[in-house]
């Protein structure tokens, strides 16, 4: 097998021969060696992997995802607020340390609310953000700092994290990472691992590539000494046995995509008891008075639907906006809208009036019409006192 230095020289020559240029805003001098090492120094295989990666970036708009995802992914804000993962400093060599508290994820809640594609988009955004950080640290320290330390906290991990949908998402994410972000792991700690995970790892350990196997540590509750082999005590967060109290782990817990105004990012699911009612209040602020409120819903049986305005804080005189009337039980979905002429609380009422025996399930979505941010087509940046249009980046270019 060729030496790493010789293989790298051949790889870079092949890229030059095929007129492939790597955008310096995204890639650096460590890119080629990462892809080469991922393919055991086989130049043809590394070339195939890198060119497929460049095509994947173009097909999925990855070059601009740090700018577009916050605007175009309707679930970005709720996922970014909720996700229990964050950068928590660096190890003894200066490489980034990342903590994910997978056991604190409400898998059922996320899967019931967030479309898988939105979740995948957020994952790519988060990974690109981390790669940008690693690029900056590598430039600052003058060495390859792409192989980070990952801590996966599995406290709370259970059956809800092992459903077929969860496994499918994990497979997709793992495939994306393996194909597009090679040689990015220095060491992986699974801490607070339940017995099931420990047993499963022992069963598959022998089938793993030896290099990968040596990077993975599946630990129970006594993990601090192992972490301190890689991370200084002053850098390790206090929650895991260090003395760093400047960082508080965020996110996790019960997932909800409920907005402050009472609407949701995605369709909501609920049930109405026999003979009962479901009231869904939303708040229209003064600046949105006069705007349209749209709604759609589907139910498992017949019911009455109405809308009332109940004053500024929901305690005023009731005013009928949509009169109560039975809905067509055969309709796949009922849609409508009205103009919210006044600020205040509007209450959507779903009445299971016709059944004193059976409950009804209902799926609904309410949207207050608000000005939308324009989709990002170009970025305007201030440079030398002049506004300059920044063209969309290209990861590769054939001359």
What is the fold's blueprint, element by element?
Elements lengths: L3 H14 L13 H8 L4 H18 L4 H8 L3 H7 L2 E6 L5 E5 L6 H7 L2 H26 L6 E6 L10 H17 L4 E7 L3 H10 L5 H4 L2 E3 L5 H5 L39 E5 L4 E8 L6 E9 L4 E6 L9 E8 L7 E7 L3 E8 L8 E9 L10 E5 L2 E5 L9
Parallel strand pairs: 2-3, 3-4, 4-5
Antiparallel strand pairs: 1-2, 6-13, 7-12, 8-11, 8-13, 9-10, 9-12, 14-15
- Proportion of helical residues: 25-40%
- What does the main sheet amount to? 5 strands, mixed
Distance between the termini: 32 Å
Low-confidence stretches are: 373-394
Please describe what this structure looks like.
The protein is α+β, with helices and mostly antiparallel strands. It contains eleven helices and 15 strands. It has helices at residues 4-17, 31-38, 43-60, 65-72, 76-82, 107-113, 116-141, 164-180, 195-204, 210-213, 224-228; strands at residues 85-90, 96-100, 148-153, 185-191, 216-218, 268-272, 277-284, 291-299, 304-309, 319-326, 334-340, 344-351, 360-368, 379-383, 386-390. The strands form four sheets. A five-stranded mixed sheet has the order 1-2-3-4-5, covered by helices on one side. A four-stranded antiparallel sheet has the order 6-13-8-11, with no helix packed on it. Strands 7-12-9-10 form a four-stranded antiparallel sheet, with no helix packed on it. Helix 1 packs across helix 2 and helix 7 (116-141) runs parallel beside helix 8 (164-180). The radius of gyration is 26 Å and the shape is elongated.
